Backbone:
């Protein structure tokens, strides 16, 4: 368990990176060969993992990020601090794997765009962090339906 309700520190970021890299080895990507791992930090300190899961009919494929989010939400967890994503075609990731637009929109449903952190990682010493707002500016979210 990580500490509750605060932005992750360096050691916690390393744990998220290690967890995402481990999770990447479980990706099921026989069609694209592009394997992605994700580690989603909930506000209660728990980490939810995800990998991409492809399908012979192609469109049922789900991204690593949404796998992690849907695992958490389906267990009643809706508050999140950060997600670490690592992916690529090679044995180890060669560059950053940024979340697709659909995954950014799923994050927008449950996360505060100004504080939720998206950690793009190649390894422990090689990562960058962005807020959701940086990766999804001028977004549409649940509050828009109240207007
Ligand atoms: N993929 C993810 O898992 N996350 C993303 O945000 C981008 C794409 C997966 C889906 C598919 O299995 C493979 O990467 C190639 O698109």
Residues:
């Amino acid at each position: 368990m990580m500490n509750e309700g605060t932005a992750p520190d360096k050691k916690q970021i390393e744990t998220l990176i290690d967890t995402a890299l481990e999770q990447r080895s479980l990706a099921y990507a026989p069609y694209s060969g592009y394997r992605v791992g994700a580690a989603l930090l909930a506000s209660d300190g728990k980490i939810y993992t995800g990998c991409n899961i492809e399908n012979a009919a192609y469109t049922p494929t789900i991204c690593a990020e949404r796998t992690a989010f849907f695992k958490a939400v389906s267990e009643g967890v809706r508050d999140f601090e950060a997600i670490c994503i690592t992916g690529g075609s090679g044995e180890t990731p060669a560059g950053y794997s940024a979340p697709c637009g659909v995954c950014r929109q799923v994050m927008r449903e449950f996360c505060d765009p100004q504080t939720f952190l998206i950690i793009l990682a190649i390894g422990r010493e090689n990562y960058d962090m962005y807020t959701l707002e940086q990766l999804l500016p001028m977004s549409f979210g649940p509050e828009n339906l109240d207007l």
